[in-house]
Design brief:
This protein is mainly alpha-helical and 256 residues long. The protein has helices at residues 9-31, 36-42, 49-55, 60-80, 83-87, 89-101, 105-114, 118-127, 137-151, 153-191, 200-254. The longest helix is centred in the C-terminal third of the chain and has 55 residues, at 200-254.
């Protein structure tokens, strides 16, 4: 079962892979850089992906990092934002429900601790109030609400990161656009308008960074709304399952 209260092994491996990929691209860009005079005459003819990346300037490096992070977050959320990971219906029906039906709250709490998930953590927080031998639905319901505000917020953090990337990427692209246009006007001031080919690299940098920022932001924004809606449905299901479990446990306690 995936733990939400600490970084997962997947996240650690992803961070290492992202750092290695980012470093390798920087080293490759440095190793393939030609002398300045030769580069100025051939850069506009380089149509490869690496050539386009180098033409975009420094703003392309954070955009590369954002694109890698977007792919990683999409994969991570696709694996974790699932009803089985958050609710753990199997453990609830096969172990927790029979324990509650027998009024064995201690065993139910042990099961919740053994099969950690947001719903079982919320249920455990409510069952702690029964340790004195009493079953008060209002007290348990209040404990559910307190725990739900914390537990259900944890998985949503990684969904929000997609929104952050979708918001920041166009700004980084715009920064590269401004940088390219500043260089273009500086070239005009120094060289005049007689050699328009000198402006090609500066204008290309401005356009490439804008397009790259949008290419990163659009998928991130689509993924954000998809996982947000999916998680909203699962969170509603959590409330329904907790309500049924509380009523069932209350009926068992009343018949005791």
């Amino acid at each position: 079962m995936i733990q939400y209260n600490k970084p997962t092994l997947f996240i650690r491996l992803f961070v290492v892979a992202a750092c290695l990929a980012f470093s390798s691209v920087i080293l490759q860009a440095q190793d393939t850089t030609a002398p300045a005079a030769e580069t100025q005459s051939t850069s506009s003819d380089d149509k490869t992906l690496m050539g386009t990346f180098k033409t975009g300037g420094l703003a392309m490096y954070p955009l590369l990092a954002f694109s890698i992070a977007t792919v990683g977050l999409i994969l991570y959320n696709a694996m974790t934002i699932r009803s089985g990971n958050i609710i753990n219906q199997k453990a609830l029906e096969e172990e927790v429900a029979p324990a509650l039906a027998a009024n064995d709250y201690a065993k139910a709490m042990e099961v919740c601790e053994a099969h950690s998930s947001p719903l079982l953590n919320i249920l455990h927080n409510g069952l702690v109030t029964t340790q004195n031998g009493t079953f008060d639905q209002q007290v348990i319901d209040k404990a559910f609400d307190e725990a739900a505000s914390v537990e259900l917020a944890k998985p949503f953090v990684f969904i929000n990161y997609l929104q952050v990337i979708a918001s920041v990427s166009p700004m980084v692209g715009l920064l590269g656009t401004v940088s390219g246009m500043v260089k273009a006007f500086r070239t005009i001031a120094e060289q005049g308008m007689g050699k328009p080919e000198l402006l090609a690299d500066n204008i290309s940098e401005a356009l490439i960074t804008t397009a790259s920022g949008l290419c990163v932001a659009i998928p991130a924004l689509i993924a954000y709304f998809y996982f947000k809606n999916k998680y909203g449905k699962i969170a509603s299901e959590v409330a329904q399952v907790l309500g049924r479990t509380l009523r069932s446990a209350g009926n068992s306690a009343a018949q005791r």
